[in-house]
Amino acid sequence: MKDFIIPWNDADMGTPARTGAAVTLTIDGADVTVPEGTSVMRAAYEAGITVPKLCATDSVEAFGSCRLCVVEIEGRRGTPASCTTPVTEGMVVHTQSSKVQKIRKGVMELYISDHPLDCLTCSANGDCELQDMAGAVGLRDVRYEYGVNHFDPTGDGALSLADAKRRADDTDLPGNFRYMEKDESNPYFTYDPSKCIVCSRCVRACEEVQGTFALTIEGRGFESRVSAGTPQDDFLTSDCVSCGACVQACPTATLQEKSVAELGTPTRSVVTTCAYCGVGCSFKAELNGDQLVRMTPYKNGKANRGHSCVKGRFAYGYMEHPDRILNPMIREDINDPWREVSWDEALGFTAKRMRGIQEKYGRRSLGVITSSRCTNEETYLVQKLARGVFMNNNTDTCARVCHSPTGYGLGQTFGTSAGTQDFDSVEHTDVVIVIGANPTDGHPVFASRLKKRLRQGAKLIVIDPRRIDLVKSPHIKAAHHLPLRPGTNVAVVTALAHVIVTEGLADEAYIRERCDWDEYLAYSDFVSDERHSPEAVEELTGVPAEELRRAARTFAGEKNGAIYYGLGVTEHSQGSTTVMGIANLAMLTGNVGREGVGVNPLRGQNNVQGSCDMGSFPHELPGYRHVKNADVREIFEKAWGVTIDPEPGLRIPNMLDAAVEGTFKGLYCQGEDILQSDPDTKHVAAGLAAMECVVVHDLFLNETANYAHVFLPGSSFLEKDGTFTNAERRINMVRKVMAPKAGYADWEVTQLLAQAMGADWNYTHPREIMAEIAATTPSFAGVTYEKINELGSVQWPCNDAAPEGTPMMHIDGFVRGKGRLMITEYVATDEKTGPRFPLLLTTGRILSQYNVGAQTRRTENSTWHGEDRLEIHPHDAEVRGVKEGDFVKLASRSGETALRATLTDRVSPGVVYTTFHHPDTQANVITTDFSDWATNCPEYKVTAVQVSPSNGPTDWQEEYAEQAAQSRRILPAAE
């Protein structure tokens, strides 16, 4: 396969790289120097010598089972496997002697004797390592006749899968008992046992790379085959999470993408970046012409290191879904059906309405919402549209409802609002706190890297109301699980600090050197107060005092401690306080500024970090500089040729409030679905309904579009150039794989709208937008497309002081100077349980779905999660007469909805949990408008509710579905 736009080597070197002292050896007469511990196979590849292999691949440790990679080593007997033999100084290796050639050819004959030779019609033809190795060893004839085999070459008497499973019980069944039918249960790939060579690469990938341990080798000797569980299991019903690691590792067509079987072997590829979560995985988009065949994780991607999850690997089919809107549409009133129009008419209609609103209500009556799914360049243009065309600062982004407390809390304590490390850092940690995050579901590729480190001996502390998979799963177990009551994060984090300070576990030398000592003394007095002790807060938090003390000692007692957190921290009324408390813990224990430590927010959407970096908040210009500062405004005023309003604009909740009040009338919403994702759905609907022009710029008619007057078709990540910035501040290239299906990339649409409003914007490529970002934003000053292409990716800050970027922050000192330990007083949320609403609802995500589900619901991922369900403890269910799978009504002070119940002890009594991926549930009709004191981030994670039996959807759900159906009417195109 020819790779287009791949300037970096991604050859399979056979075994993993090693680090150590240099060792020099001779291979086939060539001297090669490699690190100590390197395998002979990899050393040969380094010297440009290819050793045949089947069971070896550099993503997993060497196994040495296929015997195809044998070599001769002078002074040693026999022919050792090169994959499992480490190099030694002065070693002399022969890889092509007549002896090893004969052995390899004989081994290859044995493989071929039990393999169907249907190469011409096999879906792996041209992409099969078995086929390649047969050629590499010079095999042209097979001496063995067909005999006992697993593939039944005659086509007669082959057992069905069901019969094969009955073999042990009924040996009189006719047919080839070793043959098993293809397992096609997984929607994305097939398992064909007849083509399996039992190399164990899939099993080892599942164990070492993914960490799920779903696959095993069943049977012995000639009876060995890969198994996805018990004899009653298939790949769909097993523990397999469909990450694709096994498919990636398979050297034959045993495990094969269905898309390849249907569309053929891809002939070209483009490296790009996944558009799902904030891990920011690099992929090779592999194509035939402009038809996407598969997405393969790119091994040189520095965030994912060649791994993937089910979403990034397989769930890209939404871009071809018939629901996708490819033509602009307008309507005079939200009760009218949509009318397809030309781009010129749609943009002209929008510009006229927006100008009319400003003339009538003033320049601050319009605003924008930027997208955390769009590129940095596109987001930059949207906030520029607000400030340079609408002439106000009414710009906000989805971080308002997820990670805005991260920006505030880390900004106050460290001086910068982003994670301190790269993902590689987890490989050096000794103890990890995971608080308010569920990495196996929300950030699965990072979770796999974390689990690998845990299997190597690192300790884990989980702080979460639910028993997430990290608490206990195959081969890992948390040292401590603190199942706190929702809403008590601050009390728990402060109690951990209490133990560290009062038991003398703080790193005083680090604090004296790196933090403000006077502030520490004040903080020490505060946190040492007995009211913050684990015993004092036990009744409040529900966490046993002694377990909390042990967890604090574990974290403070190890050399390298890292903290990873998610929305279970930020989406609270004290989200900012908890972030500051987490930063306090890291500084108290000296865990900022080196490998294996740090404070790391796990960002939810692919470019939520970038959307914040680009100035999407109403009080900050790009680079987190306050709009009130005249010197900062001057930079952009010179670049844009406008005067920038010094007054901070409206946040999303403020926009909605102002709309209801009648002062905010127009909204341009790019790539966000606030009606489904934001809290208190009824209030969001009221705000949107009160506006006179709502412009939705997206791939699908989302829920927000129910109240829109203009729909502008969006482009998927495969249809544009640009950059994303992931959770580790890594700026990755997004490369155009195919032409935009609607005619324009999103940045072009925003530019066309600005031009229709009278702006003189003339960008011809996103690299020009990045050049403007670099010229105006110090942390991006050294960022260019050329540099990203050369290095693979860049982490900001990237400037003269760090020309190749900054993988690790705060090494010699904090950005703000001295680290600031903040007082973290616990203040109870105003949302209280009581007789009417005695349970606490918390929300989260599930592995197979993403955010509001607009993309993943339009793929086969719905096979695993076709509806939102309410998790409820069996005790709470029993007292309410609720059984597994029953419809229940979930009611709060804000609203009510109905969904099916799942009984589980993952949640504690008194706590219920659901996801928010499906609009027919609309879980956010339940959540309140309480929010973080500093940032207005909604308190999704604490809602007082009642659960009761139900016969089906509520009246509100039925009314909502009817209104949504009416809103999605599209008039037939004119003849």
TrEMBL record:
Q: Which keywords are on file for this protein? A: 4Fe-4S, Iron, Iron-sulfur, Metal-binding, Oxidoreductase, Repeat
**Which superkingdom does the taxonomy of this entry point to?**
Bacteria
The record's section on CDD domains has:
fer2 (cd00207), MopB_CT_Fdh-Nap-like (cd00508), MopB_Formate-Dh-H (cd02753)
Query: Which PROSITE patterns would you find in this protein's record?
Result: 2FE2S_FER_2 (PS51085), 4FE4S_FER_1 (PS00198), 4FE4S_FER_2 (PS51379), 4FE4S_HC3 (PS51839), 4FE4S_MOW_BIS_MGD (PS51669)
Is this entry keyworded Iron?
yes
For this protein, the record's InterPro entries field holds: 2Fe-2S_ferredoxin-type, 4Fe4S_Fe-S-bd, 4Fe4S_Fe_S_CS, Formate_Dh-H_N, Formate_DH_asu, MoPterin_dinucl-bd_dom, Mopterin_OxRdtase, Mopterin_OxRdtase_4Fe-4S_dom
- Domain 4Fe-4S ferredoxin-type as annotated: residue spans: 187-218, 229-260
Return the Pfam families for the record: Fer2_4, Fer4_7, Molybdop_Fe4S4, Molybdopterin, Molydop_binding, NADH-G_4Fe-4S_3
Q: Which residues does the UniProt record annotate as the domain 4Fe-4S Mo/W bis-MGD-type?
A: 267-323
**Ranges for the 2Fe-2S ferredoxin-type domain?**
21-99
Membrane-spanning residues where? none
- List, for all copies, the residue spans of the domain called 4Fe-4S His(Cys)3-ligated-type: 99-138
**What SMART domains is this protein classified in?**
Molybdop_Fe4S4, NADH-G_4Fe-4S_3
Q: Which PANTHER family match?
A: FORMATE DEHYDROGENASE H, RESPIRATORY NITRATE REDUCTASE
Q: Belongs to which family? A: In the C-terminal section; belongs to the prokaryotic molybdopterin-containing oxidoreductase family.
> Per its record, how is this protein called by name?
Formate dehydrogenase subunit alpha
Q: Which organism is it from?
A: Maritimibacter dapengensis
Provide the organism lineage as a comma list.
Bacteria, Pseudomonadati, Pseudomonadota, Alphaproteobacteria, Rhodobacterales
